Model the fold of this input.
Amino acid sequence: EVQLVESGGGLVQPGGSLKLSCVASGFTFSNYAMSWVRQAPGKGLEWVSGIAATNGMTSYDDSVKDRFIISRDNAKNTLYLQMDSLKPDDTAVYYCAKGGSNWIHAATDYWGKGALVTVSS
Done:
């Protein structure tokens, strides 16, 4: 059974930092691209960032480029999202999502339950 469990969310002041983690199980983590997707209160889903399985290629939405860094540790079956210079508009539930292939922009097929990030003073 595929499981994705996010952690690291919380309340942070504008300009602050948080690091999200996602521990994966139930599939061969190193074979699949992974993504972070978020949903702000009252809004739709927004793709944030993706990372390929093994070659280190990454991609970001323009709204987080130069502020967020996605990474993975295939030995630990863990996906990360380092979030710096956080803004109130970054407030959302952040979901870890498994890709259907190695390609960064492949459709996702499994999601975690999400981690809430609140950016507020």
In short: The chain is about 0% helix and 50% strand.
